[in-house]
Design a protein that fits this description.
Strand content: under 5%
Largest sheet: none
Radius of gyration: 21 Å
Oligomer: single chain
Helix content: 40-55%
Number of strands: 0
Number of helices: 13
């Protein structure tokens, strides 16, 4: 099944576009976030602010209609498109000469490295002014590889963003940039993308690094995007949803919307986005995950 799917994607001109991942991210966000926003607006019983103080009347916070968010979308997309159209895409399982070909270099060109830590610019000519295509690996990943890479990349991002997020709160200049993200009365799904451009690019680069550092297959990257966007919107949703991922994982393992909502209230705790390991260390107590595993083995 994966082989057939990959054979279809491998021959797709749309999937081969250098801008595919940016477009795919915008599409998934444009589906996931408005869905959460609709649930937020029509289910007050799930809003964390309402649950916290049921006696007070909680009007909906000020939120923007899609037509009023064009500038926000362009601010997100344009820097990423600029990188997509000027830099050679480097993926695990792709030969260097295939990367060089998409970058308008001779196949025997010296100086094009397959290392993702060494960025390579497209060779700009009148015949090939922009990097419009990306080279793909010829073989499909196994289902086990996809699951393992998704788990590793999500947990790695969680650890790295914990440190980045801590710096955003503790370093004065960065804190000023990050204050934009906390500029709201009640957290809601639209806050997910209420970011300064520096923080937004940092988030994207950390997500890319977490995938590149484990040599994630391109198909894993494609599946990672809706997972990643879904988790980001969920923790910013301001909703206590019955199907939230913090309800699926064992108690105390996931950060979830409740914990992240508390972070947005005071900004003095809960810096980890998806899980709880590093926050628990910061609070000088053993992580709940480790305590659960220890009790399991003792039993």
């Amino acid at each position: 099944m994966l082989d057939r799917l990959w054979a279809l994607l491998f021959t797709s001109r749309f999937y081969r576009l250098s801008t595919f991942e940016t477009i795919w991210t915008v599409i998934t966000y444009a589906i996931i976030e408005p869905t959460y926003t609709y649930v937020f607006a029509h289910n007050p019983q799930w809003r964390l602010a309402v649950q916290k103080d049921k006696k007070q009347v909680h009007a909906l916070p000020k939120m923007k209609r899609p037509t009023k968010r064009v500038a926000e979308g362009l601010t997100y997309v344009l820097p990423l498109l600029l990188m997509d159209l000027t830099m050679i895409k480097k993926f695990a399982g792709v030969e260097v000469h295939d990367m060089a070909k998409t970058g308008n270099y001779a196949l025997d060109s010296i100086g094009i490295s397959g290392n993702y830590l060494k960025p390579s610019l497209h060779r700009f000519t009148w015949d090939s002014p922009l990097q419009t295509e990306r080279a793909l690996p010829t073989s499909a990943p196994s289902s086990r590889m996809i699951v393992a890479q998704l788990f590793l990349s999500i947990t790695m991002f969680d650890q790295m963003f914990f440190l980045f997020h801590l710096a955003l709160h503790k370093v004065p200049y960065l804190n000023k940039l990050h204050s934009i993200h906390h500029g709201h009365k009640e957290i809601n799904p639209q806050i997910t993308n209420q970011l300064d451009i520096v923080e937004r690019l940092g988030l994207v680069m950390l997500a890319n690094f977490s995938l590149n550092s484990i040599n994630a297959h391109v198909l894993t990257r494609t599946i990672y995007i809706p997972f990643f966007v879904g988790l980001l919107v969920d923790i910013h949703s301001g909703l206590d949803l019955p199907w939230g991922y913090d309800k699926i994982l064992p108690t105390g393992w996931a950060s979830g919307s409740k914990r992240h909502s508390e972070h947005h209230e005071n900004g003095k705790k809960y810096y980890e986005p998806f899980f709880t390991i590093w926050d628990d260390f910061l609070n000088l107590q053993g992580p709940q995950i480790w305590r659960d595993l220890k009790s399991l083995f003792k039993g």
